[in-house]
Specification:
443 residues; Immunoglobulin-like; binds heme C; alpha+beta; 6-stranded mixed beta sheet; 3-stranded antiparallel beta sheet; 2 domains
Length: 443
């Protein structure tokens, strides 16, 4: 008898822990964002419209990467066939749940375009297993919407159930952690946060990406002091990225003669992110430090970073080499030579984690990633130090030498973006931080 009850409980637990699967629902099981946002949640709707959440399926680079690389690759290579459906488990959950694989192109204006919609997030009740990743959400579409606040006023459109889970970083981890078909953690924003100082202090993802302000959460509802704004501002928001790294540089000596050596030290402090920088689509992103000196005649000297000597360091110093040959699989060009690996000034320090394909070549295809190189990104509240040795030439002009250290960021490596014809805004260079110092040359 007892055994039966245990068995029964076990079955219930197992059942309730199963993630929602491909084909479990229909598009019609979900409300459209227009329905939620036109007359009631007007502000949230407009905020969401401006965030990448509403464009996760339609955005140009997403469309190009999915249709030009991932789908053809999945059709040719059994090892990665799951991504043909799986990409949209996060980018267009309702298309995935409706079993629409691949969904129509964004230009067809189908419901797949709703991307990560209101009803996706608000019908998630939890996740299956111990770690949130790879869209292991448990979704219960219908009249009941999950929220961290029950509210004083009942909605005429739906019921609200209080679910504290939505207020935690684990909720975000469902889509912000990703394991490749080869078992590599190719997206780990949530895991990085969990290992870092913010999680320990109880700071959630929501505290920085859904900040609290005094406003109504619905046009006919009450005003709360801590209404959670639906900003989701991230890498596609220049002013979110700017200032992430505070860079400061100083020389070891202020007065020098030509032929002498000046050693410059740059300190890079990550003052803003709750995870590493860069995070998320780390395979596409590039952060680098450029240092140059200008003598009193205006002559510019580019200073390459000093090598530290750690394993795999060669991937963290910009070089004139080719990479990303595995794009050739999808593009039917098995002998594809690749494009420039970094496309930033040779000798600059790069803060990155290289992704390697099963053949050990660097890749931007996170689904084709089997291993990683050294993780040389900047952790939350971490300070990285870099040095530069400047052997002053004998003909350097007398007077002040101004040294500038600048940290730059690109969402997508230029060479890759140009090769795949991705619109320019995705490769735009953003200056994250800058600092200047000086020393004097005298004869
Ligand atoms: C990516 C997931 C996600 C999307 C998309 C999303 N929400 Fe939310 N929403 C949340 C989370 C998480 C919370 C609770 C945050 C917290 O408590 O820290 C929330 C809170 C709310 C609240 C309660 C706010 C409060 O302070 O009481 C309302 C209402 C709401 N969302 C409506 C919407 C509407 C309408 C849309 C579409 C325009 C939408 N949400 C899209 C995740 C999402
Ligand atoms: C159902 C999946 C899903 C959930 C849950 C989810 N996200 Fe996202 N999120 C995405 C996808 C997909 C994108 C990528 C959009 C793109 O660029 O294609 C994204 C984009 C973002 C961005 C913008 C990044 C940029 O490049 O500008 C931020 C910030 C973000 N999410 C934060 C959060 C936070 C915070 C939570 C939890 C409250 C959360 N997300 C929950 C799927 C999700
Ligand atoms: C202390 C504040 C803070 C916390 C906590 C935080 N973030 Fe961020 N996040 C930022 C800042 C600042 C940026 C912009 C710089 C960047 O792109 O990394 C950012 C960027 C992002 C991006 C865009 C990254 C990219 O390259 O496209 C995503 C996605 C994101 N955060 C998701 C999350 C998730 C999910 C969590 C929780 C697991 C979280 N963030 C916690 C501050 C924070
Ligand atoms: C586990 C959820 C998940 C899966 C599966 C997933 N993605 Fe994403 N994807 C995200 C999130 C979250 C972001 C945003 C991260 C960031 O801002 O850096 C993102 C970002 C991207 C971006 C960068 C968007 C930009 O504008 O910079 C592209 C392109 C992309 N994904 C394509 C794909 C493709 C193609 C697949 C399938 C091979 C895929 N994704 C699978 C969650 C996922």
């Amino acid at each position: 008898m007892n055994k039966l009850i245990v068995l029964l409980l076990f079955t219930i637990v197992c059942y309730s822990q199963t993630a929602s699967q491909l084909g479990d629902f229909k598009y019609e099981d979900f409300e459209t964002p227009q329905y939620c946002g036109t007359s009631c949640h007007t502000d949230f709707y407009q905020q969401w419209k401006q965030a990448m959440m509403s464009q996760a399926y339609t955005h140009h680079w997403d469309e190009i990467e999915y249709f030009k690389l991932a789908v053809p690759h999945a059709e040719k290579d059994k090892n990665v066939e799951e991504v043909k459906a799986g990409c949209n488990g996060c980018h267009s959950p309702i298309a995935y749940l409706a079993g629409d694989v691949p969904p129509p192109l964004p230009s067809a204006n189908s419901r797949a375009n709703e991307s990560v919609s209101c009803d996706v997030c608000h019908t998630i009740t939890g996740f299956a297993g111990d770690t949130p990743y790879n869209f292991n959400y448990i979704m219960k579409p219908g009249k009941v919407k999950n929220s961290t606040r029950k509210g004083e006023i009942q909605s005429p459109a739906h019921e609200i159930v209080k679910n504290e889970f939505l207020g935690t970083g684990d909720f975000c981890g469902i889509c912000h952690n990703e394991k490749s078909p080869y078992g590599a953690w190719v997206k780990s924003t949530h895991l990085e946060w969990k290992e870092g100082p913010y999680y320990e202090q109880g700071v959630q993802c929501q505290d920085c990406h859904m900040t609290k302000g005094e406003m109504k959460s619905a046009s006919m509802g009450a005003t709360y002091k801590d209404t959670k704004l639906h900003l989701f501002h991230g890498a596609h928001d220049d002013w979110k990225v700017k200032g992430t790294i505070e860079v400061r540089i100083h020389p070891d000596i202020r007065e020098v003669e030509p032929g002498e050596v000046v050693k410059l030290t740059a300190a890079l402090f990550n003052q803003k992110t709750g995870h590493k920088f860069p995070t998320g689509s780390v395979e596409d992103r590039i952060v680098w430090l450029h240092v140059e000196a200008k003598d009193s005649n205006g002559k510019i000297y580019h200073l390459p970073v000093d090598k530290k000597g750690f394993d795999g360091e060669e991937y963290t110093i910009a070089a004139d080499v080719l990479a990303y040959q595995d794009m050739g699989i999808a593009l039917d060009d098995p002998n594809f030579k690749g494009v420039q690996r970094d496309a930033v000034p040779v000798g600059d320090r790069i803060f990155r984690k290289p992704y390697f394909d099963p053949q050990g070549r660097m890749t931007i295809q996170q689904w084709n990633t089997k291993s990683f190189g050294v993780d040389y990104r900047i952790g939350p509240k971490e300070t990285k130090l870099e040095t530069f040795t400047f052997n002053l030439p004998f003909d350097i002009a007398e007077g002040k030498v101004e040294v500038t250290a600048a940290v730059y960021y690109q969402k997508l490596i230029t060479s890759v973006g140009e090769f795949l014809e991705v619109p320019k805004d995705e490769m735009e260079t953003i200056k994250v931080g800058e600092h200047k110092t000086e020393f004097t040359v005298f004869y």
